[in-house]
Amino acid sequence: MIINKILNVDDYYFDVFMSISESLTGFSVNELQSTGLAEIYYKHILGQIETATFIEFLNISKNVLENSYSQDQLKNAITAEILSNPATQEIAQSVITLWYMGTWEGAYVNDLSYKEGLVWNVMHAHPPGAKQPGFKSWSVKPVNSNS
After folding, report:
1. Spatial contact of 35 and 106, defined as CB atoms under 8 Å apart
2. In the predicted model, what is the mean pLDDT of residues 8-32?
């Protein structure tokens, strides 16, 4: 079973949301929580789509997570049962976009969601105008720089 236990939220489905977010984004639950947006995103989604639709997505995700005993098996199950399923595909893609870009249906959830988008970590960059890299950072060559 590949579900992490998170103790700071009482909602049973929050654990499933964080575990499937980990699998969809490739970032650990700890990394996702360190953005400070986990609970905000969960509550935001609950306010944006019908609860029954979100719970169906989470129940399918829970089954995929519980029935996968290796990372390869999990990856294949997510592809087959979530990303290829029209009923869950759009929600999964929206969850990925939410974590990476901080947006839901093209709008930022809040100011922090722009600053903490996972895209900045992937690019080894910082969000312009929001979170500067620090004094003398210009003197350090960028990651993967050939010059």
Report:
1. no
2. 89
Residue range 123-146, pLDDT digits in tens:
988 888 887 766 777 777 777 656
Strand partners, 104: 107
Q: Give CA–CA dist 130/146, Å, rounded.
A: 27
Look over the chain and give the mean of its residue pLDDT values, rounded to a whole number: 88
Q: Quickly list H helices, the chain.
A: 12-25, 29-33, 38-48, 51-66, 71-78, 86-101, 111-115, 118-123
136: burial class by Cβ within 10 Å (0-12, 13-18, 19+)?
exposed
Residue 24, both tokens:
């969809």
Nearest-angstrom CA–CA distance, 48 and 93: 15
Domain spans in the chain, listed from the N-terminal domain onward:
12-139
Tens digit of pLDDT for each residue in 91-117?
Answer: 999 999 999 999 999 999 999 999 999
